[in-house]
Design a protein that fits this description.
It contains seven helices and eleven strands. It is an alpha/beta fold.
Length: 257
């Protein structure tokens, strides 16, 4: 079993194309954050081209059944606004707001997806909040024991709870919507710690024997950050903008694009 891990993309789709061409794989896990680059073309792809690329990966790529798409905090606002009334009146939603968002981008996103009948069900089926493979848990920003209810197993959370949270992402009163919305104080939010989209790798994440091995992105480091190295719950943050991961029979190696 060989799994490729592609961290936060932020419109660097050329890197994704190169990796998918040069590597063989049984599975590819995209850790989310396709949008909102701090750079402009030609340094990265345009927002529109990124939308088209993502749509084609999901619908037309010959290996699309091997792809696992995880939700990032820079993705969810555009998905939320991918609805009918946003065509003429795009109002950013406070609960899902993220820096880099713009109304013009939301219009482009809607043109690529909503106008082609790719709406809520498309995203809730194609995208996940977390994924487990080869004994490793993947999410955008990481998972903590504080996220689990009493006596709730990690597998129950991934297989039952999180899919329900995601399919109900428009319901802000859902009792566990915090997995998507919570932003910790270290990132100027009101929560004690961030949820699966916002947990900070420097100040909030702690490796846990109860959770086990994890790989995530979201917090940018100069080099890949490893926690509890050599232990059974060894975890990695791969968001460096220059590395991707390969898990081969449960063993992670980190490579340069």
């Amino acid at each position: 079993m060989k799994t490729l891990i592609i961290p936060d993309i932020h419109q660097r789709i050329v890197l994704v194309e190169d990796v998918l061409k040069k590597e063989t794989y049984d599975e590819v896990v995209f850790l989310g954050d396709w949008f909102d680059s701090f750079f402009e073309p030609p340094h990265v792809a345009s927002f529109l081209d990124t939308c088209l690329f993502l749509r084609d990966l999901m619908t037309d790529h010959p290996n699309r059944d091997k792809f696992v798409f995880l939700l990032g905090n820079h993705d969810v606002q555009y998905i939320y606004l991918n609805k009918a009334h946003s065509h003429t009146n795009i109002v950013p939603i406070r609960e899902y707001y993220c820096s880099g968002f713009s109304k013009n981008k939301a219009k482009q996103f809607r043109k690529v997806f909503f106008d082609n009948n790719l709406r809520d069900e498309f995203f809730t089926k194609k995208i996940k909040l977390a994924h487990k493979s080869q004994g490793i848990i993947y999410s955008h920003a990481g998972l903590m024991p504080d996220h689990l209810n009493f006596n709730e197993s990690v597998d129950e959370l991934i297989d039952k709870v999180l899919p329900d949270v995601w399919v109900n992402f428009r319901n802000f009163s859902h009792n566990r919507n915090y997995f998507i919305t919570d932003v910790g104080r270290c990132r100027y939010g009101n929560a004690q710690i961030g949820g699966l989209l916002w947990l900070d790798g420097r100040h909030e994440f702690t490796p846990s024997k109860h959770i086990g091995k994890q790989i995530f992105g979201h917090t940018t480091f100069v080099e890949p950050e490893v926690y509890a190295q050599g232990e059974a719950h060894e975890s990695w943050c791969l968001d460096t903008e220059k590395h991707y991961g390969v898990v081969d029979d449960g063993v992670l190696s980190v490579k340069l694009y």
